[in-house]
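In full, the data.
>
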Amino acid sequence: MDMNAGRDSQAVVETRLTHETHRLATGLLVDAAGRPSVPRQALAQLRDFLVANLRHHHETEDKWLWPLILTAAPDVKRALDDLSEEHERLDAALDRLADIGLTGAKDHDGGHLNEGDRHALREAAVAVRDSVRDHLDHEEPVLFPALREHITPAQWAEFAQRVIATTPPVAGHLMIGLLDEVGTPAEVESIFVNMPAPVKPLLPALRDQAAADLRVLRGTAS
């Protein structure tokens, strides 16, 4: 954990928590794919959430965040270009994961994957997990200092609003549940304060739904 987290800017806090949800969720899919008790629908929901959110995350970095940083710090262009190349390689792993057939449970399988499909899913999930973790290990030493030194609170607030407005509506409750697991209550609240007003009253129900779905994925549902 970043020892300066308590004093960090909102940009670093939000980025750190988002990255931790990606680490947690990609590892969870690998584990769940190896667990025969986890239904096809639960695996498909987590897979689709990951594919949509990981793509959206790095697309918003490439399109909006990198240009903001480069305006203030053109000397980091080479490092950001390298990170964008890693985004492209991650896209290839996400394509493979997205192509695994998980929708439309068959009558004879009871809603569960057969061994071959489960193995294919797990292999694709491992590739995404490893790609995400390696990429974040490269990105954070570049991005966190850049956010601290070159992005103003007003710039971050505008960027964050654009990200929220364009986030794909794919199993968004899972993001809420995962954020609760990786962040402190104060950190999570600092993110949720910017949620659209119609969504805020739904937070308790979304948290309950996320907790139930995460228990299924972890094989701890009663």
Remarks:
- Confidence is low (pLDDT under 50) at residues 1-6.
- The two ends are 32 Å apart (CA to CA).
